[in-house]
Structures are given as C-alpha cells and as structure tokens.
Design a protein that fits this description.
single chain; about 290 residues; alpha/beta; TIM Barrel; two-stranded parallel ribbon; about 35% helix
C-alpha cells in the first residue's frame, strides 16, 4: 500500500535543537532516559524547550514488541537501584512541578516493576510533597497486588493507555489485552478514588468513529477521568502503516463527545500524546 501524503496539519514546526541538546546532556549525566527520545515523539522540541520531559525508567529494552512503538525489545538489563535518586535530581535541576514517569514493560520482573514505580514516587515526595506525580504504567499483567503497590505510593495520577480499539489489539499490541487494560484502571479507582485515572488512544489505524466512541464509553464505565487521543505516526522500525490522517475536526468532535460522556479533561488533537502538556489537567488537583 502506498504511503499517505502527510497533510498540512501534520507538519512539525521548527525545533530549538540547542535546548534539546542541553536537556539531553543533563539527562545523560544522570543516566536517565526519556520516552520523548526513545519513542521518537514529535513533541520533543516543544517539551524540552519548556524544560519538561517524560522519564522512561527501568531501562530502554521492552519485553513486549508492540508494532506502534520504536523502543527496543528483548531481554532487559537489571534494574538500576539508583534510578529513583537520579529522577529526583533531574526534577530539582529542571524545577518540575508536574513529573511524568513511564517505563518499558518488564514482564521479566515478578511485580512488573511496581515496587520501582512506588520507590520513585516516595523519593519525589521526600524531596517535595507538592510535586504532582503522574505514573504511566504498563498493565502489570493485571495483578491486583502489584497495582495496589503503585496505588499505595500515592501518585496524583495513574495513566494506563488502552492504545487502540479492541479490534486492533491482536494486530497492533498482541501481548496485551483490552479487558486487562480496563481492569487496571478499574482497580486503581476502587483502591483509591482520590487518584485521577487517565488513558490514551491512537487513531489513524483503520478504526471507525463508532469504535473510538465505544472505547470512550468503556473508559467511563471504569470511571476514567482524563482522556488523550492522538494521531498514530509510524516509527522508522515499524511495518505498521498509517491508514488515514484523522482530521482536526474529528479530533474536536471526539473531545466534545468526551466531555459530554463525563471525562473531566480531554486532550484530542493530531499531535496529542499521553504525556504531552500533561500539566494542563493540573487544575483538577486544585479542587
């Protein structure tokens, strides 16, 4: 199938490479990675220019091989026990008020890395209890015990992305299960209703509007608070092609429908990613 021509609304503006290099150098000195770099996010220039980043913990090798992702997969290295302290140091140097922590999927670890997420949260709280902490977690195999470990560390927001509509799971992310992802979000809310839950969806992979609205309805049934919807962009290493470029008008329609369904905050636009401008939902925490 021939590649689709990129529409005008998908053009990325000029990037401040000097600022990007400055943040990259600081992160390398602390032996830290960002999902911005590893997943080749189109928003990296804007985020680094604002001195924000989504930290990628537990290494840069994933145990799963999802077609939409550019992160390496294979056998991961041992966990870096100093990583929580390095995260705190980066938070200090960047002066962050909202910290987003995500990870590769670590199915090789007994708890999927839940304790590591919890330790990072505790270390940040020790440094500054007012920092807003958002954890973007893998499905942790849907284990209630491990989800509880994350929840009991008291993050402000727990994000777990469903990624695609159910029909596309076997094609796009075959090692995951749609029902398991919904269960993760459901467990978090049941364990601590004060934590905001969040999920994200990629479009442009051949899904229908009806399917997207169906996912949104499913997320509301598990009381998901925050929703992000963005255009799928093909990483260089992937064979998963873009089926269509969703129009800005349809993204706006999804946002309108999301608010009508009861989501407390919806970010829906071509370049939206699950952690891009995450701080825009911070007003929820002031209530």
């Amino acid at each position: 199938m021939p590649r689709l021509k990129k529409p005008e609304w998908m053009r990325i503006g000029k990037m401040d490479w000097d600022e990007i290099k400055k943040i990259q150098n600081m992160l390398r000195k602390l032996n830290l990675r960002t999902v911005c770099e590893e997943s080749m996010c189109p928003n990296i220039g804007k985020c680094f220019a604002k001195q924000t980043a989504t930290f990628l913990v537990m290494g840069d090798i994933c145990t799963r091989d999802c077609l939409f992702c550019d992160i390496k997969h294979g056998k991961p290295h041992l966990l870096d026990t100093k990583e929580p302290n390095h995260i705190v140091e980066a938070v200090k140097k960047l002066g962050l008020k909202h910290v987003v922590i995500t990870s590769v999927t670590r199915d090789d670890l007994p708890d999927g890395g839940a304790a590591h997420f919890a330790e990072i949260t505790r270390k940040i709280r020790e440094y500054n209890k007012d920092v807003i902490i958002e954890l973007l977690i893998p499905d942790l195999k849907g284990k209630e015990k491990d989800i509880r470990t994350v929840v009991e560390s008291s993050p402000n927001i727990v994000n777990h992305n469903v990624e695609v509509v159910p029909r596309l799971f076997n094609k796009v992310t075959p090692q995951a299960k749609y029902e398991k992802s919904l269960k993760v979000l459901k467990f978090v809310k049941e364990m601590d209703s004060s934590i905001y839950t969040k999920s994200g969806l990629m479009v442009g992979l051949g899904e229908t509007k009806k399917e997207v609205l169906g996912v949104m309805e499913n997320l509301r049934t598990v009381d998901c608070d925050i929703l992000t919807i963005g255009q799928y962009l093909k990483p260089p290493s992937s064979n998963l092609e873009i089926e269509e470029y969703v129009t800005p008008e349809l993204f706006k329609e999804y946002a309108k429908k999301g608010y009508e369904m009861g989501f407390k905050f919806v970010a829906s636009a071509p370049f939206v990613r699950s952690s891009f401008n995450a701080e825009e939902a911070d007003f929820l925490l002031d209530k």
